[in-house]
Each structure stands twice: as C-alpha cells, then as structure tokens.
Amino acid sequence: MKLKTMLGAFGMGLSFSATAFALDVNEETPILESGADHYDYLVYAMTWQPTYCLLNACKTTPRSEFYTHGIWPYLKTTPSSQNRHPDSCTQSIGCTQDTACALTEANIADAKAIPGFTQIVTDNPEGLMKHEWQKHGTCYGGSSLDYFKDFINLRTFATFDEHAFGALIGVEGGTTLSDIQTLFPPNTSYRCATYKNEQYLFEVFYLLNKDRTGAPYIDQSLQIGTACDPARKIVIPTAPS
C-alpha cells in the first residue's frame, strides 16, 4: 500500500485551482485498489453554497441550498488520524489496471443527463466532476455513471429539518453548533470556515454504510477540514440578492 500525505493549506471546496484541491492538514490518503473491500464507509458531502460563494468568486448567484460536493469512500479514524480515505484508486471500472483514469467528455455528458443531477450540483460542474471522479469515484467500486447516479440516489438520505434550518438562515449574530446539530441526524459531521472574523457553516457530511443502502454509519472522531468551534456562534448566510 502506498501512502500519500501532505501538510498544506485548507482547500475551499468547489473551485478548481490547485489551492482549492490541496489536502487538509490532517488528511491521509492511502492509494488502494477500487472497491468497497478497501474502505469502511461513505461520506456524502454537501456544501452550503452561499458560504462557498462568500469565500470564492462565484460567476452566478447561488441558491440558498446545500449543493452536493461528492461521495467519498472513507476509512475508520484512528488515534493518530481523523481524516483517512483512499485516493485515486487503481483497477476501477473503465480504467486501466495501474492508473486512476480521467473522466471523459462522454462520461460527463452521460452523468449530466441523469434526471435531477444538474439541480443538486454547482453551475458548470465539469471541473468538479473530473476532480471528484479521479480522487474519490475511482475508489467507489463502480463505473463513473454508477458513481454520479448515486449523487441522486444517496441524496435522499441526506435529510434534516429544513423548516427549522430555514429559520436560521441569515440570522444576525448566528446560532450555536448545538442548535444546528439538533436539526441533523447523528451520523453527520460539520465543517466551518472563517470570514472577516466570523464563523460560517460551510459543509455537512453524512456518514453512510458502504453498501449504498443509505443506512447510517457512525465514526464519532471524523473531522474533515476545519472543525466548527462550539464556543463561537455560526453564521448561515443567505444567498446574495
């Protein structure tokens, strides 16, 4: 097993620069063969798009919604690592034996034709799709079409109290992490970002069984990216008008 680690800047998620795709400081990425035998569970990652656009220059005005970032095969945390996942796996369906293959234009067109797909991802998602497939999808154990179909299929298990959450959007001064957590199931983890000395909700991660049934998985030590500070208020911004 090859092991790849990096101490780098925190990547801001969905843009397509080298900085945005840098590894988190605690991220550990062993290079393994594709397939569920080589990972423990799945992370369904959703980005609060108004926060993303606050941190990055979005070309279009986002909706006040969670956009699907990706599905990430993950490894159980250890005492020394809270963020472990396979990366750029070999022997994936549609790839050569020894390399993690790139997504083709035909693959992208097929995925974008999946009913509902373009409604849950960022505008012009081609760069995101290429990155997510090569880094995470190649480890999933299916074809690229299988992977992107599950953006839709598994989204149905990414549930939360939408009415109560909506009441927290745009609240001046923000809310508490504990108040946010009451609106989501226990198989979730959170990522925050700081902007102008305020803490913003950035991403929510749903931990799911690797059998793709949507059954919850618990890994209480998981922390992807910057943890939300429970001692500080968290702002959930609304989309700019």
From TrEMBL:
SUPFAM superfamilies for this protein: Ribonuclease Rh-like
Signal peptide (from-to): 1-22
Presence of keyword Signal: yes
Top-level taxon of origin: Bacteria
Swiss-Prot/TrEMBL keywords: Signal
MF annotations from Gene Ontology: ribonuclease T2 activity; RNA binding
Family, per entry: Belongs to the RNase T2 family.
Name the record gives this protein: Ribonuclease I
Species the sequence originates in: Pseudomonas abietaniphila
